[in-house]
Design goal:
The chain is mainly alpha-helical. It has one domain: Chondroitin AC/alginate lyase (Glycosyltransferase), CATH 1.50.10. The protein is about 50% helix and about 5% strand. It contains 16 helices and four strands. It has helices at about 5-20, 50-60, 65-80, 140-160, 165-180, 210, 215-225, 235-250, 255-260, 265-280, 285-300, 310-315, 320-340, 355-365, 385-390, 395-400, and strands spanning about 105, 110, 125, 190-195. A two-stranded parallel sheet has the order 1-4. It has a two-stranded antiparallel ribbon with strand order 2-3. The chain is globular, with a radius of gyration of 22 Å. The two termini are about 25 Å apart.
Length: about 425
């Protein structure tokens, strides 16, 4: 997109913010005013009614949401002119032989031997937990997939709250290119994700690269489907068809089954992804079944009575992964709300609960005490969204902690998209 166009859109957003700011703080809708009924997005993680409420509060001049909107618009403007992206952009051919297959290299695996003419790759590769091999960044699918997830979600929300058509059209183009258009779409499977050089052509662990962000696109598509310019019924049908095929692969393939059986954050994210996609494509019973079984597999077995998460605190980045697993649990609880299961209120036989796991992070997340486990890159704001989610669900300790939180990079968007999202300075 031309720079002048981007500048005009940014100016439009600034004017919108000024107009909204002109409404007195906390102003009520004047008596007799007819408020147009908003079409509620049929989201599967976000609560569509809360989005409608947030939009109404913005129209009334709510100052917290005005600040969040300014941050959201700035992020959306940064995505205009970037993309769309496609798995066919890469020069590498996956082991499958099909460039429409997603390809990524296992990030924590390194050559164990010097690279020589007889062993140019330095085989065999060995795992070094938490140490990212820069070789993994040479394959564009990994980074472009992250751009698709972040941009389409941000742009769809920006359109919803500002009404600026350019945001919706670009979000639609990004989703259509990666998931719908035959020449550029990705195959709905992950058979070559996180391959290990001179080892596996792909691994079940590679599914985490989609499960941590794809569910945001389900909500982005639902938001666009409320009447966004540029998003057509054919786009909706194509994206839904891709999601249905992907769900079938996740639930029947060896990789999908292995990832769901994982006892750490991989398994939690796998459950969250299956439940959310199932709800989005009209399989609510599968969604409910997946959420229900998480009470045993993810809470009883994954959280200790004191709130620590044994599988996560043993990592070299224990704070990051503790918050990361809770991110998936919080989003799974959001899906549960749609199907009548309250994961927040559940307590295991020894008192295990998601509330306890969140509370375990509070001293470090508020800066009142150091994190007591190994963490090679401590970022205090990593747990902010899961604390917001717990506070919303009734956790009084989390509610008391909210004023003490350090805002994440890009600002706190919770009031405009009240569901836990990945807060990170890194590309996942």
């Amino acid at each position: 997109m031309h720079k002048r166009t981007v500048g005009l859109l940014s100016l439009g957003a600034a004017i919108l913010s000024l107009l909204v700011a002109a409404v007195p703080t906390g102003a009520a809708v004047p008596a007799g005013t007819v408020v147009a009924e908003q079409r509620v997005p049929r989201t599967v993680v976000l609560d569509g009614k809360r989005l409608v409420h947030a939009k109404q509060r913005l129209d009334q001049g709510d100052p917290v949401r005005r600040r969040a909107l300014a941050d959201l618009v700035q992020q959306a403007d940064n995505w205009l002119g970037k993309g769309p992206w496609s798995v066919t952009d890469k020069t590498q051919t996956p082991p499958s032989g099909d460039k429409h297959d997603y390809l990524s290299q296992a990030p924590y695996w390194w050559p164990s031997q010097p690279k020589t003419p007889d062993n140019p790759l330095g085989c065999p590769y060995v795992s070094k937990d938490g140490q990212r091999n820069p070789e993994a960044d040479l394959i564009p699918d990994h980074s472009e997939r992250a751009y698709v997830f972040a941009s389409a979600y941000t742009l769809s929300l920006a359109w919803y709250y500002t009404g600026q058509a350019a945001y919706a059209r670009h979000a639609a183009d990004i989703l259509r290119t990666w998931f719908v258009t035959p020449e550029t779409r990705m195959n709905p499977r992950l058979i070559n994700a996180q391959f290990v050089p001179c080892g596996d052509d792909g691994r079940a662990a590679g599914l985490i690269e989609f499960s941590l962000g794809f569910t945001s696109l389900l909500d982005a598509a639902a938001i666009l489907n409320t009447g966004a310019p540029g998003w057509t019924p054919a786009d909706h049908d194509g994206f839904r068809s891709w999601s249905t095929q992907f769900l079938d692969w996740l639930t029947t393939s060896d990789f999908g089954k292995a990832e769901s059986a994982a006892v750490n954050n991989h398994g939690t994210f796998a459950d969250m992804q299956v439940a959310a996609i199932a709800l989005a494509v009209g399989r609510p019973q599968l969604a409910r079944q997946t959420v229900a079984q998480a009470r045993t597999t993810r809470i009883d077995q994954g959280i200790s009575p004191d709130g620590s998460q044994p599988q996560e605190i043993r990592r070299t980045r224990s704070y990051h992964y503790s918050a990361f697993n809770l991110l998936a649990l919080a989003r799974l609880a959001d899906v549960g709300r749609h199907v009548g299961i309250n994961l927040w209120k559940y307590q295991g036989p020894d008192g295990q609960s998601v509330f306890k796991a969140v509370d375990f992070l509070l001293p470090a997340a508020t800066g009142t005490a150091p994190w007591p486990y190994p963490e090679s890159k401590f970022e205090i704001w990593k747990a902010n969204d899961v604390i917001h989610a717990a506070a919303d669900a009734g956790d009084r300790d989390a509610q008391a902690a909210l004023p003490l939180l350090t805002p994440p990079p890009g600002g706190d968007l919770w009031t405009l998209r009240p569901a836990a999202e990945l807060l990170s300075s890194e590309l996942f």
